[in-house]
Design goal:
Layout lengths: L19 H18 L1 H6 L1 H30 L2 H33 L18 H8 L3 H8 L4 H7 L2 H17 L5 H22 L2 H16 L2 H5 L1 H25 L4 H7 L1 H10 L6 H10 L4 H14 L2 H17 L6 H14 L9 H12 L15 H26 L5 H10 L15
Length: about 450
């Protein structure tokens, strides 16, 4: 079979103002200024951010489906697929638990809510009733049933990443099982996948507009004054998350032969987009593309990264234990060691399946508190005003955590191309090009 033509190489870096990361950074600053000085105008720009996120979410399902199916089909070893999944879940469980413990320890040491002396009777339960009702529906049975789509098309319509994976993994395995008869279908899916990744590159040019609208809305609606009122909580959360990324993820990265700082520099455009849009989903397609370009096999990227968006939420885990103890401290409720261990165990379960979108962490926190009666769910009203600002940090930490997880699992599988990884990280993250197309095997 004649080899398919290679996709064009990444374009050479142009002037700094043509780079996506610079444009997104300027957009965030401009959005913050608009939101601060003209709050009403800032709030009115919300549709720009919403439109961009909808634009990206529109292509997330097909990108994940095509990446997972073609990755598994090209792996040609069913045992290897199970090995990748097992290693990924072992990593997720270990690091997520560590994130929960760090949040618990920091909350006990810093005690950001101590001294507020809020009267529980003064809280407004109606302010968080919507989140509490969603949390009440988040049972284990409901979560598992929701993984199964109503139909094949339903998996793509719902926007639920786990439903797409539920369909994609067996489909990829089926292609492996039918052998050479599946070759035409695999070739077709590879071509469609290349087209979708080109579409990702096109859509990402609108990222500065989306970041501008989303950040203008955030600052315009909530204002910097909201941060001042609960400044210690917000500062503690950001500092803890930064500590987790640089120390914990940094150590994991170093043990696996790469630098966390260089990885962050490589993903700087996506990180700024996540910060501006308050959603890690906004950068998911681009992240998968860049991880492949950095030497991680498509089969590993296709399995680990989407799963990580539901099961490896380091930032959300830090937030849940830290925020829960903050509420208890602010209300003057002293939790025993047993209560705190119960809180940690419940948080570990409730955090699984929370999508990396705005508000998911708040809903998950509500689900956790409903099982820990010592702390009233109404206490979440205390942090409602600053949750949007903490949502940015949650999304950023989740995003970096999943990038590290994918590279680590790729290394454990022996499939990481170290030369590509070194070249990508030393290059600092150039413009995103179409996904490279491998030549067919002889």
């Amino acid at each position: 079979m004649a080899p398919r033509p290679q996709a064009e190489a990444p374009a050479a870096p142009g002037r700094f103002y043509t780079q996506l990361y610079f444009q997104v950074l300027v957009a965030i600053v401009a959005g913050a200024l608009i939101g601060h000085f003209w709050p009403a105008t800032g709030e009115s720009l919300k549709p720009l951010g919403d439109a961009f996120i909808k634009l990206v979410k529109m292509i997330i399902a097909p990108v994940i489906f095509l990446t997972v199916v073609t990755g598994i089909a090209q792996m040609r070893d069913l045992g290897k697929v199970g090995g990748v999944a097992a290693k990924a879940f072992a990593y997720f469980l270990t690091v997520s638990t560590f994130a929960l413990i760090i949040g618990l320890v920091v909350a006990n040491v810093v005690r950001p809510g101590a001294g507020m002396n809020v009267d529980p009777a003064s809280l407004d339960p109606a302010a968080v009733s919507g989140y509490a009702s969603k949390a009440h529906d988040a049972t284990v049975t409901g979560f598992l049933m929701d993984i199964i789509p109503e139909s094949v098309a339903g998996a793509f319509i719902s926007g639920n990443v786990l439903q797409v994976l539920f369909l994609a993994i067996p489909f990829g395995l089926a292609l492996v099982m039918i052998g050479e008869r599946g070759a035409p279908a695999l070739a077709f899916l590879n071509s469609v996948g290349d087209a979708f990744f080109r579409l990702v590159a096109i859509f990402m040019r609108a990222a500065p507009i989306g970041a501008f609208g989303a950040f203008a809305f955030t600052v315009g609606k909530y204002g910097v004054g909201a941060i001042v009122d609960l400044g210690l909580l917000v500062a503690t959360f950001y500092a803890t998350s930064l500590l987790f990324v640089l120390v914990v993820l940094g150590a994991i990265a170093r043990l696996n032969g790469f630098s966390i700082l260089k990885l962050i520099a490589y993903l700087k455009a996506e990180i700024l987009l996540v910060f501006g849009a308050c959603s890690s989903e906004a950068a998911l397609p681009s992240l998968m593309q860049k991880l492949e370009r950095a030497g991680a096999p498509k089969s590993v990227v296709g399995l680990v990264t989407p799963f990580g968006y539901s099961f490896n939420l380091d930032g959300t885990n830090i937030y849940m234990t830290l925020a829960a103890l903050f509420i208890a401290q602010a209300l003057g409720i002293e939790l025993s060691i047993g209560d705190q261990l119960l809180l940690l165990a419940v948080a570990m379960l409730s955090s699984k399946g929370a999508a990396g979108v705005t508000g998911a962490g708040f809903i998950t926190l509500a689900a956790t508190l409903t099982v820990v009666p010592s702390v009233p769910v109404a206490g979440m009203a205390l942090i409602l005003g600053v949750d949007r600002f903490m949502s940015e940090c949650r999304a950023l930490t989740n995003f970096v955590g999943n990038a590290v997880a994918t590279i680590v699992v790729a290394r454990w599988e022996g499939g990481l191309d170290r030369e590509k990884l070194a070249a990508a990280l030393e290059g600092g993250g150039g413009p995103v090009a179409a996904r490279p197309v491998e030549a067919d095997a002889d």
